[in-house]
Structure formats: C-alpha cells, structure tokens
C-alpha cells in the first residue's frame, strides 16, 4: 500500500535491486530527505524503487529508521561514546561490506543521523593511526603491493605480447598456406589447358 | 574500508571529524588522498594566517599552523638515547630514505628525526606544507640562534 498521507500507520512498499518488495512505515521513511523530496507530497503509485541497493542493505537502513522514529529530533553529530547500546549493536553486527553498503544507501536516501554516525565510526577507525596502519584501514595498496602489482602487469603485458607475436606468425603462415593451393590450382589449370590445346592442335 | 570509493559527501564528513594532524597523516598515504584532502578541506585552511617553524633548544623544532580558528602543530624531536632508532617512514612526501618517522606513542603530534639531517628534514617538511597550503600563507621562521637556519631562505 502506498499513500501520501502523513499518518505513521501508513506503510510504503519499497523495491530492492532484486525486485523484491517489503513494507516500511511512513514515519521511518520520513527520516529520508530523498523520500521527503520525491514522494511525500505526491505519494507513490506502486512500490518505491530503490533498485540501486539490495534488500538486505535497505532492510538494515530502514531497521535503523524504524528504531529512531521515537528518538528526539536529530541535532547534529553525536560522539561515538554517546551512542546507545542498541546503536552500538546495530553497527557491530555489520560486516565491512554491509557497512559500506549501508553508508552508500544512507547517503543516497539522505538520512542525516545514520550517515553522520557512520562517518563518525570511520573517523574513529582513522584516529591514532600511523601512515601504514592508515593505509590498511583505507585499503590503499602499499609501495610493495604496488610494485608486485606492477610486476604482475608487466608479466601479463609480456605474455600478451608473446601471444600477439605468435598469432601474427601463425597468421602469416596461414596466409602462405592459403595462397599456395590457389597458385597450385592456377598452375594445374594452366597445365591442363596447355595439354588440351596441344592435343587439339595435334588433331 | 574503501574510503576512496565512498561518496564525496561522506568523505568530506569524515575529514571534517578529523583534526589537522590526522589529515596530514592521511595525506601521506598517497597522492590521491593528498589531493582529496586538499580539495575537500580547502575551506578549512582558507583563513590560515601563517605557518611558523620555531627552532628551539635541544634541536627541537615546533611547526605551528595558526588561524583564527586553528592553532595546531607538531613537534620534531631529535633522536635520543631512548629513541635512538629511527625507522624511516614515507612522511611529508620525502621518501623513506630521509631519517624521520612518527613518534611511536604521540602519533601525529610528534615526529622523531635525525638531527644530523636537520636541513633536509625541515626543507622537506616546508616543501610539503607549502604545496599543501599554497603560497598565500606566510611562512615564518623563529630561531633562538642569531642566524636563521640556511634552509629558511626558500619560499619566504
């Protein structure tokens, strides 16, 4: 059911990238500024397509929204230490891939509270780290990894070059082979015609 | 955590939650992170008045970044008997052959350097900060000696 009504009882259907649909309450959805801008006043006929995100991610994001419906209005970033036990569990039970997906979805849906908590969590991961540790956290390749990657690419390029050279050689050979039968055919035809001509002139 | 693949709004929010010293360390990670910080956080440096290098006693060097809102900096301490070994790190874009590293305890706030190489180290730091903040800022040198260090002549 979809409706522009502002009652918190109203449920909206959300469509994920898998094409699955599920219900989200209007009160939870209204935490998304993207939703407010796009659908709140005009309503939606049929499921609201958030098809860039999978069902698990969207459910996680709206789980957060449903939970924070009754919390006081958002008033700027809150320090990680001020997060409730529920909030901490919510973040801790996510693996890194899910965390990244949730940040992206939360950013797209423009859910300020969730986005800012995610950012604070990332900032916390970066604080008090040296360069090497920082590189690990933000998963940048190290100098050694870059060197190894370059070597692998050089090897691949050399192998590709060899393959290309071989292919060129084979093509040359094939061309010669293809040419030979034609030449032979021409020669054979020529010989036959000569023989016929000779036999005809002898007669 | 693939920070560089996140939306730039998220990257900017994350950087805003970090102080100058931490951003400086992130900028050492790669050229891309340096450009990212420079572009997303430029507005924070806009009112910087000066960067001051103070050459103090016992070969300590204080690098101070001052604006109306920012008063941050870091200290360069020479290697001592307790902190004799310097495992060079690629900081301030100087490459790992220059003897400077982050202090093992005071990350970001303090660096250890080889006092025999003061000239190269300070010049390297200045070149980096000059590129990082740009030329519109005053770069000052304060020294307890009568003569400022030779490397203070460049970019003044």
TrEMBL record, chain A:
Gene3D superfamilies: Potassium Channel Kv1.1, Chain A
GO process annotations (BP): ubiquitin-dependent protein catabolic process
Signal sequence region: none
Keywords, sorted A to Z: Ubl conjugation pathway
UniProt-listed SMART domains: Skp1
Residues annotated as domain SKP1 component dimerisation: 113-159
Record-annotated SKP1 component POZ domain positions: 14-69
Pfam families found in the cross-reference section: Skp1 (PF01466), Skp1_POZ (PF03931)
Top-rank lineage group of the source organism: Eukaryota
UniProt xrefs under InterPro entries: SKP1, SKP1-like, SKP1-like_dim_sf, SKP1/BTB/POZ_sf, Skp1_comp_dimer, Skp1_comp_POZ
The family this protein is said to belong to: Belongs to the SKP1 family.
Name of the protein described by the UniProt record: Skp1-related protein
Organism from which the protein derives: Caenorhabditis remanei
TrEMBL record, chain B:
Signal peptide (residue range): none
Pfam (any one): F-box
UniProt domain F-box: residue ranges: 1-48
InterPro entries hit by this protein: F-box_dom
PANTHER family: F-BOX ASSOCIATED DOMAIN-CONTAINING PROTEIN-RELATED, F-BOX-CONTAINING HYPOTHETICAL PROTEIN C.ELEGANS
Protein name listed in UniProt: F-box domain-containing protein
């Amino acid at each position: 059911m979809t409706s522009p009504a502002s009652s918190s009882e109203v449920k909206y259907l959300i469509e994920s990238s898998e094409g699955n649909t599920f219900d989200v309450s209007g009160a939870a959805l209204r935490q998304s500024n993207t939703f407010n801008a796009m659908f709140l006043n005009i309503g939606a006929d049929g499921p609201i397509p958030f098809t860039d995100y999978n069902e698990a991610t969207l459910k996680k994001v709206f789980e957060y929204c449903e939970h924070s419906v009754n919390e006081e209005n958002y008033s700027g970033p809150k320090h990680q230490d001020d997060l409730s036990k529920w909030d901490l569990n919510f973040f801790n039970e996510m693996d890194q891939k899910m965390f990244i997906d949730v940040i992206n979805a939360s950013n797209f849906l423009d859910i300020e509270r969730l986005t800012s908590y995610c950012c604070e969590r990332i900032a916390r991961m970066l604080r008090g780290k040296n360069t090497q540790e920082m590189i690990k956290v933000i998963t940048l390749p190290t100098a050694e990894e870059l060197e190894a990657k370059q070597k692998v690419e050089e090897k691949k390029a050399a192998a590709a070059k060899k393959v290309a050279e071989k292919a060129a050689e084979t093509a040359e050979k094939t061309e010669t082979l293809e040419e030979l039968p034609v030449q032979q055919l021409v020669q054979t035809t020529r010989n036959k015609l000569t023989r016929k001509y000779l036999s005809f002139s002898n007669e | 955590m693939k920070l560089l693949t996140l939306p730039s709004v998220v990257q900017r929010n994350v950087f805003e939650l970090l102080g100058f010293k931490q951003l400086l360390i992130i900028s050492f990670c790669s050229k891309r992170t340096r450009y990212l910080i420079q572009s997303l956080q430029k507005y924070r440096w806009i009112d910087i008045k000066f960067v001051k290098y103070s050459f103090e006693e016992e070969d300590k060097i204080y690098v101070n970044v001052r604006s109306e809102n920012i008063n941050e900096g870091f200290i360069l301490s020479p290697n001592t008997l307790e902190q004799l070994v310097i495992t060079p790190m690629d900081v301030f874009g100087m490459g790992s052959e220059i003897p400077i590293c982050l202090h093992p305890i005071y990350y970001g706030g303090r660096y250890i350097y080889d006092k025999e190489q003061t000239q190269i180290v300070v010049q390297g730091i200045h070149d980096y900060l000059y590129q990082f903040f740009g030329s519109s800022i005053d770069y000052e040198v304060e020294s307890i000696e009568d003569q400022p260090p030779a490397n203070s002549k460049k970019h003044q």
